[in-house]
Hints:
With 341 residues, the protein is an alpha/beta fold. 50% of the residues lie in helices and 11% in strands. It has a single domain (5-338), classed as TIM Barrel (Alpha-Beta Barrel).
Amino acid sequence: MMNDLFLRACRKETVERTPVWYMRQAGRYQPEYRKIREKYSLLEICERPDVCAQVTTLPITQLGVDAAILFSDIMVPVGAMGLDFDLKKDVGPMIDRPITSLADVNALHPIDPLHDLPYVFETIGQLKETLSVPLIGFSGAPFTLASYMIEGKPSRQYLKTKAMMYGEPAIWFALMDKLADMIVTYLEAQVKAGASALQIFDSWVGSLSPFDYEQYVLPVMQKIFERVNQLGVPTIYFGVGTGSLLSLFQKTGASVIGIDWRLDLATASQVLGKEQVLQGNLDPAVLLAPFEEIEIRASRIIEQGKEIAGHVFNLGHGVFPEVNVATLAKLTEYIHRNSER
Ligand code: CP3
């Protein structure tokens, strides 16, 4: 029997209770994950379908969440475009030869998902047979991917990225187009292999003003969602610190908008209307608070979510390694018990 609560909430259908999953629900907060990481690097996990499927599935059995998210990283398909990267422990993606010129952009090639990344689709195929909940496929968004490709490492100010955007718009838009084609191809292949929903992570796009988002990012996001929405599965668009970009996020065409904790769900729905399905938005740092404090904040989110056409409970960003598995399992149970309709 398939638990399809998550898909029904995304489609604004009736639900018996609020579905929940957590960004980075597979990761270092789990002792079992840390054990596997002693043996394999993150990318080695991604490349071994058995291990990858096991890591993807663990939060479902351990926490009781209503959706699984493919275990991978947003940088994986960037490697297939011909840009070598490394995932540095406790830091993130590192690139030796970042993108600086049009020649660098032109050297990136289109991906052939099944040929270049066969293990991703083998993992999805295995998961399709075994999961009792929907599988979310994902990709990074052009701005967030470009920020790593241009800076060469995680960044706070995105100075090189913005300098290229403002000063070399032809290079910027060429890069956006290349990434858009990769993203659409990659997401299409994930759905064909068995993903039942898609999330596009634009984690760092909240660093842009609305004026710049509209000019340099919105057109490429519209192009992506126009194509990806034809796949017939729910599409989620998520970013951190994007409260000032909300109405522009809605213009992308994504079916679900993911928000962080800096904005109440109720405030977001005042801007977007009650028909807009939302995902979010507990501050992941709250998971380090006493459970009574977690309950207060979770129940507010549940109640605000009941007022809109569809709500998927999530964190406002990924689970921190410092969180206890037991806390997250207890929260999941709390949400299930306290959101019944
Ligand atoms: O459970 C899941 O959410 C699925 C797995 C997943 C990972 N990365 C695994 C991972 C997903 C969806 C991602 C996406 C991703 N990767 C994003 C977008 C989401 C977000 O967090 O904003 C970004 C920005 C990246 C780039 C990246 N990869 C960063 C910034 C880091 C963190 C560096 C660190 O060590 O804290 C990574 C590494 C990474 N990707 C880890 C995991 C579980 C860290 C743990 C490890 O090294 O084993």
